[in-house]
Amino acid sequence: MRDTSEEWEEIYWSLPREVEVLRGMDSSFLQAYLEARSGAYDLIRISRPHNMARLCAVDRAKKLLSGARLVYDAEAVFALREIRGGEILQGRILPEEEARPRIGEQISLARQADRVVAVSEEEACESRRQGIANLRVTGHAAPPAPTAPSFAERKDFLVVGAVHGLESPNGDALLWFAQKVLPKVCGGWTDGQPRFLVPGCGTDSPELLRRLRPEVTAIGPVADLTPYL
Question: Are 113 and 135 in contact (CB under 8 A)?
């Protein structure tokens, strides 16, 4: 369920055809949707705090989800990232009395779930400190699919990920590497210059391109990474 301008071809780049996508329906339809399909599901998986908050705001949510196990994929404690981002990027240290409630408010969403999934042990530890016990750490898994070139034939760098703003973790990391590390790498290269390829949603944004070095090739979203491997 997402209010999106993406075409179906783009949507099914990353999702199997068996997944039902409610294109053009945003969270305002969630109440009616759950009422229409109450009792239809054995398991409901919800990702990220803003989506879990929308579910919690649904009237009679527990009754509508009766019989289904609720798995909350918290991914990360975004409040921790935002607080650290303010410290690193803006030099702004949030007082403890402001930081703790902000973190606690986000973690409290997990209390509604039968199982909670976190992306790293750091986020999991913070959740456990606040009483969330039914928690597992799950990373992203992908089957290996090696391509033909040997190790000796490879010299380029490939960085894959979405960039949803320059101050996002991916945006900040990409700019730091391109501006601080890549010049030293290229400066020490004697046999031709390596390419630095960056496919992913948002990597071709004009704002980002203006701040990247000429050695970086920002590609934007792609359906298949094989040609770059």
Answer: no
- Neighbouring C-beta atoms of residue 52, cutoff 10 Å: 22
Strand ranges inside 64-220, DSSP E: 69-75, 115-118, 135-137, 157-158, 196-199, 216-220
For the chain, give every domain's residue range.
37-137, 151-228
148 within 8 A of 60, measured Cβ to Cβ:
no
What count of Cα atoms within 13 Å lies in the side-chain half-sphere of residue 79? 19
From the list 56, 54, 110, 55, the residue with the least C-alpha distance to 78 is 110
Give the tens place of pLDDT for each residue, 159-206: 998 998 888 888 988 999 988 998 888 888 777 788 899 999 899 889
pLDDT tens-digit series, residues 67-115: 899 999 877 677 777 777 777 777 778 777 777 777 778 788 888 889 9
Q: Which amino acid is at 41?
A: Y
Report how far residue 2's alpha carbon sits from residue 176's, in angstroms, rounded to the nearest whole number.
Answer: 32
Contact 33, 58 (CB under 8 A): no
pLDDT class of 28 with cuts at 50, 70, 90 = confident
Name 202's Cβ contacts closer than 8 Å, sequence gap at least 6: 162, 163, 164, 165, 171, 208, 220
Q: What SS3 state is found at 144? A: coil
Look up residue 73 and give its two tokens.
């994929």
What is the pTM assigned to this prediction?
Answer: 0.69
Output the CA torsion sign for 29, 34, 40, 41: positive
